[in-house]
Write a structure and sequence with these properties.
Number of strands: 10
Bound molecules: 5'-O-[(R)-(carboxyoxy)(hydroxy)phosphoryl]adenosine, zinc ion
Largest sheet: 5 strands, mixed
Radius of gyration: 20 Å
Strand content: 15-25%
Number of helices: 11
CATH topology of the largest domain: Nucleotidyltransferase, domain 5
Low-confidence stretches: none
Number of domains: 2
Structural class: alpha/beta
Order of helices and strands: EEEHHEHEHEEEHHHHEHEHH
Length: 337
């Protein structure tokens, strides 16, 4: 079995996950216990319930991961864990478990930023991928254009000034009655609608800006729905979903293409939960190929929260001996750099 062998733990939101990954690329196990059905009836993640569910599941997912990988605790070389950003109670479950393991096994503890984890999901599958590269991170809490200069060296080119793309998907999903989690539900509904049916606004911001803004789009969609409802007219949720999704995808794609040209980079990586969106993947792939650039994105299972990406990011920190102390704490609002 390939070395170093890293145990990854992820408990930042509503998935309890443990993974065993060899040399940052060989996934021996990636167990994900999802709390989606628990939170569904509340229309979103309830932090207190999330923490309790993580507590119930954490030891079980660790045991399952080791069993599936066919290894024991003493075969591990390090324990890597998400310490932020995320829900504080949820993060603390993973951080406490990782600290206990690292202490008991006398192995290094590695503190991973969740968003760096999403970026490193790309390195799990694409063995040829290496910095420098442009990264578009689109998740429930982040929308960023980033430049990964070298492993561990990240420059922020642009960020959202208000809502994250995933957050906008979740809010629109709720408004049109599709519930939680919003992204996959909106994408499914969009397949039955016309993306050109409603002309929702695109926020391009100032000339050359690599920042994003989705709150104007969100308000426009909510106003459109409210106006129709006030007039007792039927809202075509399929057209709303398709036209909304098109507006988000268009801005993400155009800004990524501008950044590619401005920086003259040949490699582009898509990361984060919204990277699971088929329309976004398809459009980025097509436009970047036309521009002669290489496009990479993780497979669907690795786009959303999972511990293999945390073990992979942890591996690159392991190589730099970027270890945490046993005083590590959760940092709910941890920044990207
Ligand atoms: O990265 P992630 O799993 O968690 C965070 O770190 O935030 O991202 C979750 C976000 C949610 O907002 C969810 O609605 C969105 O990713 N998402 C999608 C899709 N799958 C998940 N958005 C659009 N289309 C999808 N297929
Ligand atoms: Zn995430």
């Amino acid at each position: 079995m390939k070395k170093p062998l890293i145990l990854g733990l992820e408990t930042s939101c509503d998935e309890t996950s443990a993974a065993v990954v060899g040399a940052g690329e060989e996934i021996y196990a990636n167990i994900i216990s999802s709390q989606i059905t628990t939170h569904q009836k509340f229309g979103g993640v309830v932090p207190e319930i999330a923490s309790r569910k993580h507590l119930e599941a954490v030891n079980l997912v660790i045991e399952s991961a080791l069993k599936e990988a066919g290894v024991g605790f003493h075969d591990l070389d390090a324990v890597s864990v998400t310490y932020g950003p995320g829900l504080v109670g949820a993060l603390l479950v993973g951080v406490s478990a990782a600290k206990a393991l690292a202490y008991a096994l006398e192995k290094p503890l590695i503190a991973v930023n969740h968003i760096w984890g999403h970026i490193y999901a790309g390195f799990l599958e694409h063995k040829k991928l290496s910095p420098p590269l442009l990264v578009l991170v689109v998740s429930g809490g982040h929308t960023n254009l980033l430049y990964l200069k070298a492993h561990g060296e990240l420059e922020v080119l642009g960020e959202t000034r208000d809502d994250a793309a995933g957050e906008a998907f979740d809010k629109i999903s709720r408004a049109i009655g599709l519930g939680y989690p919003g992204g996959p539900a909106v994408e499914k509904a969009a397949k039955l609608g016309d993306p050109l049916a409603i002309d929702f606004p695109r926020a391009w911001l100032e000339e050359g800006s690599m920042d994003f803004s989705f709150s104007g789009l969100k308000s426009a969609v909510l106003n459109y729905i409210n106006n129709l409802r006030q007039r007792n007219e039927v809202v075509n949720v399929y057209h709303v979903a398709a036209s909304f999704q098109e507006a988000v995808v268009e801005v993400l794609v155009e800004k990524t293409l501008s950044a590619v040209k401005e920086l003259d980079v040949g490699e582009v990586l898509l990361a984060g939960g919204v990277a699971a969106n088929g329309r976004l993947r398809q459009e980025l792939h097509m436009r970047l190929s036309e521009a002669g650039r290489n496009f990479y994105c993780p497979s669907l299972r690795l786009c959303t929260d999972n511990a293999a990406m945390i073990a992979c990011a942890g591996y690159y920190q392991y190589l730099r001996r970027d270890f945490a102390s046993l005083y590590l704490n959760a940092v709910p609002n941890l920044s990207l750099i």
